[in-house]
Design a protein that fits this description.
alpha/beta; Rossmann fold; two-stranded parallel sheet; 9 strands; globular; binds S-adenosylmethionine
């Protein structure tokens, strides 16, 4: 979904920030689509170390700058594109670094939106990949992006694309009864 969105993206491509860069897939896509510099952060030091090693001395390593940091870390500059594929489920207990790929604590989204507001350029785009998983599994009562938009203070919705997920393997032993209603979401927010 992000790759398709990038194909149609008409804005500036000087720099972008990938919050929670993980294996780097979204940052690689941005470089492929012509972004000159991508700053990536992650709270999981293994993600940063693994990505550093994988990129080695390649051209990618000159285009993607990594930082083992929470949210935006020390990045203060404005950028034209911020992307975040955050954890999709609210945490029921305290989190370790690996859990943070899947579960979010109650401060994550309020802090993310406040910091993103200070770093997004005037005509910039804030892209968030999310899912209705929390709602359909009844793990959460609220949707953190809808909650931010409902405040109507910092961001407004440009578009929200939704896509059903593929059916689960017949071999899975996990409870997948909700899967037929599961959708991934690509939210594009702009500054008010
Ligand atoms: C769902 S994964 C997405 C990884 C990758 N961007 C992708 O799309 O495949 C979420 C990532 O965000 C990281 N993360 C979670 N909370 C974070 C935070 N507060 N600051 C920076 N990274 C965070 C996790 O460690 C994990 O690598």
């Amino acid at each position: 979904m992000f790759d398709n969105w990038l194909k149609r993206y008409k804005g500036a491509k000087k720099s972008a920030i990938d919050v929670g860069i993980g294996s780097g897939v979204l940052a690689f896509q941005m470089v492929q689509h012509g972004f000159q510099k991508v700053f990536g952060t992650d709270t999981n030091p293994n993600a940063i170390a693994g990505l550093k090693e994988a990129m080695g001395e390649t051209k990618l390593s000159r285009k993607i700058e990594l930082s083992d940091a929470n949210l935006f870390g020390e990045l203060k500059n404005e950028t034209e594109l911020i992307v975040f594929n955050p954890p999709w489920l609210p945490a029921a207990s305290s989190l370790g670094k690996i859990d943070e790929a899947i579960y979010y604590n109650k401060n994550l989204f309020p802090k993310f939106f406040a910091e993103a507001n200070n770093r997004l350029a005037k005509d910039g785009k804030l892209v968030i990949l999310f899912s209705n998983l929390g709602q359909i599994t009844k793990a959460s009562k609220e949707h953190p992006i809808e909650k931010e938009l409902a405040k109507g203070v910092r961001f407004q919705l440009e578009k929200c694309l939704k896509k059903s997920v593929k059916v689960a393997s017949e071999k899975t032993k996990r409870d997948q009864h909700w899967r037929s209603t599961e959708e991934v979401e690509l939210w594009v927010l702009v500054k008010k």
